[in-house]
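Why do we care about 3D structure at all? Because function follows from shape, and shape follows, mostly, from sequence. That is the central idea of this module. The next example makes it concrete: a single protein chain, its amino acid sequence, and then its structure expressed as tokens.
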Amino acid sequence: MSGEVRLSRRRFLKYAAGTAGALVVGIGTVGAVDRPPPLGLLGDAWAQLGPYLRIAADGRIFIGVRDPDNGEGTATSLARIIADELDADWSRVIVEPLGVGVVQGNGEPKFTYGRQRSGDATSIPAAWADLRQAGALARWLLLQAAARRLGVPAEQLRGENGTVVAADGRTIPYGDLASTAATIDAPTSAPPLKPAERYQLIGKPAGDVDARAIVTGTQRYAFDETIGDPVIAVLARCPYPGGTLESADRDAATKVPGVYAVIDIAPEQGQPAGTAAQSAALAVLARDTWSALSGRAALKATWKAGDDPEPTASAHEQKALEAFGDDTVVPSTVRNDGDVMAVRKKAARALEATYFQPWIAHATAETPNCVVRLDPETSVTVIASTQSPRQVYTVVQRMTGFRADQIDIQVPRGGGGFGRRLETDYVAEAMAIALAKKPDDIRNRPVKVLWTRDDDLVRDYYRPLAVHRLNASLDRKKNIVGWHQRMASPSAIAGRGTPENRLWQSEVVADALPAGLVPNFRSDWYPLASKMQRGEWRGSPNVTPTFASESFIDELAHSVKANPLDFRLALLGEPRQLPYGGRGGPIDTARMANVLKLAAERLDWSRWLRSENGLGIACAYVFGAYVAHAVEVAPTTDGIDIHRVVCVADVGRVVNPLGLEAQLQGATMDALSTALNLAITVKDGKVQQTGFRDYPVAATQPLPYEVETIVVPSTADPSGASVIGVPSAAPALANAVFRATAVRVRRLPLLRELARLR
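And the structure:
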């Protein structure tokens, strides 16, 4: 390592000379013991790319992306942040996913790549500063190398499309300068970053770096990966949360041709939720998937629900309603401004409504899977699609006791995440099988665990069901002067080390609008006990509360015969900054009003009162982004048709507009599909849905043919985008349905409830 640049108290950059005249630049963490670049990085084999930008002698630029890409577009956006600062030729850039960046230091693991997490709208905000610094350092070194060769000051040179350009027109390709650049001493301070007006890639649309491979069917996902000749494992899992095995015919399973063994899997006790196998299970090990599935069927396993089985949704809802009406039940008060009870007594008008939302699964295109190759004495290699490589490392290290240099975590592209791949239960299952005693003929072979669709739906980490009761008080001028929202749900972070008095954080956002807009505002959360596994879902914790609050605002507008758009704009009031304790604040009411106006304008909101179709609108502030949806629906004899959907987003500076539009469109479609049709139900203590036949993800009708998107230009620092298109879509749809049918849907899924009420 030939130099080091101090950039802050917590971050620094490193660079080194590689073989064949390469310049290698990487990001580390102060205090970490630096791991040398992998051999593959310094030669011609690129299977393992380290945390470095490598400029090869032939002009190719290899950029390693630290955050997993499960369809969020992180591989493209993060690479373009570095490439733009470098003034790289994007056509010569090759993007590679990174595994876990971890080294051993003073007996503790040191994570050298930073947070390494995707799918929660944090990848770009977290990378915005340090990835630009990595590109700026590489550019600075190349300019210094060119200055020596050309005999002119570096200040008179510039980078352009993978070359250094002198004032007199002379050019030198980066590849010709890489070896010299790697020998130059580090600057005494961080090189300056490019001004925004010089961006060539940031803010310009780019297709996904894997797009060609995806559309031609050559993209390899984790499900496609393997090591050697692995044993295939499928598991028969207890379908009852907290249940146990009653009986199984192991002999019948092992008699199936191709089946090697049946192994009992018991979940580790005392581990945080999501980091261990979910339930008691039997693993069938076989030579191929068909044999493994046939062996599992032959088990004819039966299971016991155990004491106090999981109640139905209606039972949960009844407990919630009882809690709302019982003054002896003390909720968690999330926020309390003014006095909602006092203002209600003086109100000119008061309104109350109750909303219900079901359990929801993730239903990712690629089901969970994991490959493990274990040498019990020396090393372990794990291949898994994940949104949290660090969590995968933590599970593997806990179960093996290995040092950081003995653990290799590889993270291929994943087929959808939405929060499901933040959990590592499937990794823990694979590790348990790898560590278990097995027949001698398969003892040392890698293990590949595969989940089927029914496995995935029956054993997901669900978005919790929720019940909301909202009360509002209005004065004689039709202004909202009091707002009291009560929400009951099982917390998604229960059992994960969060204190009891903070379990509401996964369910409701303390400062979410209309908090700060109403002088008397109170938000209470009531916990519901459940054995169902639950976790993050796309847009949580904004999704379920936004459906209730944005639908209720529409109800309030209707009660005073106001235009819903004008009513919202009046509520937002004059442009100002509202304090916001969550990620991304404060809230700029002018930016929120702007996305509402743009969405309404694109949908031609002037038709709202006279249109035969129903127009609905809703908005949300999500992790620093401002989003609004406007929806037009037409009633049909058996439901509705969604004619148009407009989504407007202000996310600050946009790295890749095309990628952002794709995320907004995909998230909107996901939200509409979920709102229209989807619910996980429990009967006799177990989940009823086992496939897309009874968990019908919408394909065509009644979804629109397209989602029209508007991206607001901005110079503010970027926020994330993968989840922001979800929260306001469902309430905009419900509001449009009310306008079209005069039926107010307060219970999801919408189509089922609409049919019941009409």
